[in-house]
Design goal:
The structure is a single chain. The protein is α+β, with helices and mostly antiparallel strands. It has one domain.
Length: 107
């Protein structure tokens, strides 16, 4: 969580620095075989800003969660700002307006 005044560019920059720091780490883990193994962790992050992306806490959480779900799609290991996403239902509305049959949920 960042406090105001933080704009989209600053939030993106801060989130990317955090993502790069996590990605640069190497963890030593003990495997079930009793051996030590190097593990690398990546980070997918969704970012939403108040009041630009939402007017209240619940909406802000939903906007950040939508951005996170997009960040987790391949290629993963990235930061997605909610401001870069379409509003929920926008694609379905466009389909309806064009007279196309509804698309199945999740496609």
């Amino acid at each position: 969580m960042l406090s105001a005044p933080v704009g989209p560019e600053e939030a993106q920059s801060i989130a990317e620095r955090l993502r790069h720091q996590v990605e640069a780490q190497s963890l030593a883990l003990s495997g079930l075989d009793g051996e030590r193994h190097a593990a690398h962790v990546t980070l997918s992050m969704g970012v939403a800003l108040y009041p630009g992306d939402a007017a209240d806490g619940d909406s802000l959480w939903r906007a950040a969660n939508r951005a996170l779900l997009e960040a987790k799609r391949p290629p993963k290991n990235r930061v997605v700002l909610a401001t870069s996403l379409e509003a929920p239902g926008a694609e379905r509305r466009r389909h309806r307006e064009r007279g196309l049959p509804p698309r199945p949920e999740g496609s």
